[in-house]
Design goal:
five-stranded mixed sheet, 12 helices, alpha/beta, disordered N terminus
Length: about 300
C-alpha cells in the first residue's frame, strides 16, 4: 500500500487531468461504466477506455473483482481519496468565482417497504435548498439489496444492524403499534403480501401477518407501507403501523400501546467502498437532521 501510495503521488501527477479523475469517480460511485457514462454524458466504451488509459499511465490496476462485481483495490482507494479532495477543491473554486458546476446525477433512493413516502416533505425541503441535486425514488422493497447491487445510491432502511458491505448513519429508532380508523368499530386485521414477505422476511415486519400466514387467515394483504397505511385510513381493516407517521393522522387511533419488541432502528445507508459524492453527501446530512426531528428526536448513536 505504501509503495502504491508513493507511486500515486509520483511523476504521473504532472500529467493528470481533472477529467481523468472525474471519470474514475463516476465509475466507482455508480458501479458500472454504463451508469458512469450516463452521468457524464459519454458512452460506456469511452468510460472503459479512459479507465484503462488511467491504469496504464499509472502502471498498476485500480480495481479488483469481488462477488458483487468490481471495487477499488488498495491503489484505487488511494486514488479515490485524492480524486475526492480535488473534486471538493474544484467545487469550492467554482462556487467562489460564480462558475457553473456540472449538474449532479440523480440520487436514487430505495426504502424498506416504501417508507420513504413518509419523508417526501423532507425530500421536498432538500430539493428547494439544493435544486442542483435531482432525486429519484425507486419502487424497491429491500433497500439493502438495492444499494448492494448498485440499483440505488441511498437506502432508507429499517434494520437492526448493517451488513459489513454497507455503511450508514442511524438516525432514529421507530416504534409501532396497532391502529384502526377512528370510530370504525370492529375491524379485521390486514397483512403483508407474498412479495413483501419475500423481499423483507422476518425483522420488524412480524407485527403483521405475512405471506402464507396472511393468506391462510383470509386477510387483505399489501406489498408496500403506503398501501397498508392508506387501507387502515380508509377503514378496510386494522394493522400495526409506525407510530411517528400514524399518530399524525387525525382519522387514525391507537388500539394498543407500542410493543418495544417491534422497535427498529432507521438508517441512511450507502455502499461502504463507494464514498458518497457531493450531492449524496448533502442529502444524507440533510435527512439525518430532518428525519431525526420528524421522529421526535429519537436518535440513537451510530455504533
Amino acid at each position: 500500500m505504501c509503495k502504491n501510495a508513493r507511486h500515486l503521488n509520483g511523476n504521473w501527477v504532472r500529467h493528470m487531468e481533472w477529467s481523468d479523475l472525474e471519470v474514475f469517480l463516476a465509475a466507482v460511485r455508480t458501479g458500472s461504466y454504463t451508469a458512469a457514462g450516463r452521468q457524464l454524458g459519454i458512452n460506456r466504451t469511452t468510460i472503459g477506455r479512459r479507465v484503462e488509459a488511467l491504469e496504464k499511465s499509472l502502471g498498476l490496476p485500480l480495481f479488483e473483482k469481488n462477488p458483487l462485481g468490481y471495487a477499488p483495490n488498495a491503489a484505487g482507494a488511494r486514488l479515490l481519496a485524492t480524486a475526492e479532495a480535488v473534486e471538493r477543491e474544484v467545487a469550492a473554486m467554482l462556487h467562489d468565482i460564480g462558475g457553473a458546476a456540472r449538474q449532479s446525477a440523480p440520487v436514487r433512493i430505495a426504502s424498506s417497504g416504501g417508507i420513504a413516502s413518509e419523508f417526501l416533505p423532507e425530500i421536498a425541503a432538500f430539493r428547494r435548498a439544493n435544486p442542483d441535486v435531482p432525486v429519484e425514488l425507486l419502487g424497491e422493497l429491500d433497500p439493502l439489496d438495492a444499494v448492494t447491487q448498485r440499483r440505488a445510491d441511498l437506502g432508507i432502511a429499517l434494520v437492526r444492524s448493517l451488513p459489513l458491505r454497507l455503511a450508514g448513519t442511524q438516525v432514529a429508532t421507530l416504534s409501532q403499534a396497532p391502529y384502526g380508523r377512528r370510530h370504525a368499530g370492529a375491524l379485521q386485521s390486514l397483512g403483508w403480501g407474498y412479495e413483501f414477505d419475500a423481499a423483507l422476511p422476518g425483522g420488524p415486519w412480524s407485527a403483521n401477518p405475512a405471506g402464507e400466514a396472511a393468506q391462510a387467515a383470509g386477510l387483505v394483504t399489501f406489498n408496500a407501507w403506503p398501501q397498508l397505511k392508506q387501507a387502515v385510513m380508509a377503514g378496510i381493516g386494522k394493522a400495526t403501523l409506525w407510530c411517528f407517521a400514524a399518530d399524525a393522522e387525525e382519522h387514525l387511533e391507537r388500539l394498543a400501546p407500542p410493543d418495544p419488541r417491534h422497535d427498529c432502528p432507521l438508517w441512511l445507508v450507502h455502499r461502504a467502498k463507494a464514498p458518497p459524492g457531493p450531492g449524496l453527501a448533502r442529502l444524507i446530512a440533510f435527512l439525518d437532521n430532518a428525519i431525526a426531528a420528524r421522529c421526535d428526536g429519537k436518535r440513537a448513536a451510530t455504533p
